[in-house]
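User: Quick one: structure for sequence A, then sequence B.

Assistant: Sequence A:
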Amino acid sequence: MIENKQNWNFHEFKVYLLLYAANADFELTKEEKQLIHSKCSKSEYKHIHNVFENDSDYDQIETILSFKDKFYPTEEDTVKLLKEINDLLIVDHELDLYEKNFFRILQKILR
C-alpha cells in the first residue's frame, strides 16, 4: 500500500525523519527507539515506522526533501532539528563513521 504523505503534519514528518536518522548506521538500537517513542504515541510510531520500512531509499529522500521547507523553513528551525538529530545519533554511543557521514549529508540536504 502506498502511503499518502501529503496530509502529514509536522509531528509525523519529524518521527519519519528521526527514524531515517536512527537507521544511518543500518541499526535501530534500543536507545534510539526509546528516544523516538518518547516523542510520539505507540500507534503513531507503528504507523510511521511501517511507512518508513516500506519506502525505498529514494522515497525516503524524496519525502524529506518534500517536507523540509514546509516544516523547517528557517535556518534557526534547521539548526534546532539538526541538534535533535545529533542527540538521537549519540544516544547509544559516539558517532560511528556511518553516522558521521550521514550527518554531513543530511546537513546539506536540509540546508
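Sequence B:
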Amino acid sequence: MTRPLPPRHADVEIEVRYAETDQMGVVHHANYLVWFELARTRLCLEAGFHYAEIEKRGLLLLVTGAELSYRAPARYGERVVASCWVERVGSRGVRFAYRIARDGDLLATGSTEHVWVDAASRRPTRFPTELEAPFREFLPARG
C-alpha cells in the first residue's frame, strides 16, 4: 500500500502498451520517465497553463536531473496511475515528485529537477511571476 498523495497533485491513467515492454511483458525502465513527463504535463495544465502555452511565452522548463526508484514491475495490459506534485520551488527552478501505482500498489517513485530558461537566449531566468503561485498550489502543506 502506498502513502497518501499530497492534497494537490495531478494524475494520469496509463494503459501499458506492448511497445513499452520487453520480451517478458515487463515495462522497460526508461518508460517510467516518459510517464513522469505525462503527469508533469498534466500538472502544468491543471495549474492553468498548457506546456505549449508556456513555450509560446518564450520559456522552457529544462530538465537538469532525474531520480527514479523501482519497487515492482508494471506489465503489458495493466492500468497504472502516474501522479505528480511540486516538491520544491526555487528562484530559478522547480523540483517535481512522482509516484507510479497500480491498484494502490507502489511501482516506482522519483523526481525531476528543472530550471527555467529563456527560449531566445537559452539562459536561465527567474521563475515566471505568473506561473509561480499556480505551481506553489501543488506543494504539499507543511505541517
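Helices lie at 31-46, 51-56, 129-136. The mean pLDDT is 94.

User: Thanks, that's what I needed.
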